[in-house]
């Protein structure tokens, strides 16, 4: 669905992506993780055609994103972290913007809004930030685009809304549709995002399903600090003990994954831990 | 085609408040000035109000300001830009929609509105004061020519709207001034060159300026006197606006998101 | 294998077993679709697919093409057997280890167990 090959991007002279490679398949909820300034939003903007890559190849839904072909843009809904909504009613918004998305479904839109408890008779400017976000998400889902790009979608959502968000995304994923969700709030989306994509120092250092991850590394919580050596790749102190990442002895030996610890581990040792997933990166 | 219609509809809902304010201002000025004029007229003659002369200011000044602002949000604000870039339409559709809205619908609408306002105002004056002045003639040659000039010149302000990140109108006007000054210098040098036989010293020689004779008498390039004007007209009416639209098109096409990381 | 440290798809499986054991999903009855369960538990539908696959392989549930998933005729009995196996091979050895460490024998446990049953009834 999305293939980036040897993609290079820089702001001025400072290179942000250096020969970045990424392959995303349909029917998944990708979680894009990376530290501040790793370039998550930039990557999303390159994929959606808002920024032009400097070198390398890119294929998004069969199009070169830099051309911004309407047939490609019709299949992408991008919910940015910050956004602007016109000061008009919901009704007028639908009238003006839904015709751009040929498969837009009014019925679905109302369904999502009901889930999000949005009052459709209000003006958009009367909504709170979280309500605006939910409104846009409902609009995007009802547009039935093949790709949904969500940048920090749970930022600004209250606790019940986060749960509604997870339910909605789970219900909206189909084999033809994919989500690409960038987030720092891993806890908000644990058990929802899978596969995981980790962006670090200009490269994708991990792109693997969680099953793939847990077949290669095991995570264990222990009371005492694990002795160095003993096959331990990474240790982190957590409340009540230690979290350790080690190699699995066999692919059948799967363990539960803590995404935050996994992220810290992979970023602390991109070559070592990240290197275990090299062949999965395509 | 459908996309252009959707874009125009969006433009309409975004701009209608401004249009209503402008319409109210125009009608208000017509009505008030006519009312006062008729009132003062009771006590002695005053100049006749001429609707034909009233339209230029609104058409050019307000129109150029509106045109200058028409890409401010969508191209030059961080948040507005996102929606504009993600809109599933071609760059040329975005451009055409703006040209239709600001170079075509605006002048035509304004001319028709001026006619309607004059009709309403004079209808009232006829009833109230039993006296009226001629209505605005929308299809008068001068009005049509004004509209045509507006159509051509607004392309410049559209380009300014796309290129300048802020103070679009002022910057466009200033650039035009700067351009006009440099063009004047070049033109002066050209005249000095073309009519070099006329200028016998740094100061002009014989001051016998009698219309076209001078062109024929002193011009080193006789074809210029014959083709200069048609060429100028062709450049103005046929080349100027397509050129600026093309430049604007590339600016729109190349626009990239400004935020990120 | 540590009980709490099992991958998410197996933790979900435990929840589904619980539904069967508690009678929430009676033998032979239709059960919610993968999507419905994914939404209810707020997990990735692909993970839920894997869990359903596991239960299907074990014969606890089955898929009627075009209709949906059903608990098999002996879902409860099978689940009970599975969970017993798991208990015997998973938690029981851990418990024995702890009993050893604390110097307790089967008799101490039997006494406690009887007391527990007595309190309960």
Any overview of this molecule?
The complex is a heterotrimer of chains A (282), B (261) and C (121). Chain A is of the alpha/beta class and 282 residues long. Chain A has two domains: 2-208, Rossmann fold, CATH 3.40.50; 210-280, no CATH class. Chain A has helices at residues 40-47, 70-73, 90-97, 106-115, 129-142, 159-172, 186-189, 210-216, 259-268, and strands spanning 2-11, 14-24, 29-34, 55-60, 76-79, 147-151, 178-182, 196-200, 203-208, 217-222, 232-238, 241-247. The longest helix of chain A is centred in the middle third of the chain and has 14 residues, at 129-142. Chain A is globular. With 261 residues, chain B is mainly alpha-helical. Chain B is 77% helix and 0% strand. Chain B contains nine helices and no strands. Chain B has helices at 2-41, 51-69, 72-76, 78-86, 91-129, 141-163, 168-194, 212-218, 222-254. In chain B, helix 1 (2-41) packs parallel to helix 5 (91-129), helix 2 runs antiparallel to helix 5 and helix 5 (91-129) packs across helix 9 (222-254). The longest helix of chain B is centred in the first third of the chain and has 40 residues, at 2-41. Helices cover 65% and strands 7% of the residues of chain C. Chain C has 121 residues and is mainly alpha-helical. In chain C, helix 1 crosses helix 3 (45-58) and helix 2 packs across helix 3 (45-58). Chain C has a domain at 8-75: Winged helix-like DNA-binding domain superfamily/Winged helix DNA-binding domain (Arc Repressor Mutant, subunit A, Orthogonal Bundle), CATH 1.10.10. Chain C contains five helices and two strands. Classes of the chains: A alpha/beta (282), B mainly alpha (261), C mainly alpha (121). Chain A binds chain B through residues 11, 16, 37, 39, 41-42, 45, 48-52, 68-74, 76-78, 80, 82-84, 86, 88, 92, 96-97, 99-101, and chain B through 2-3, 6, 9-10, 13-14, 77-80, 82-83, 85-91, 256-257, 259-261.
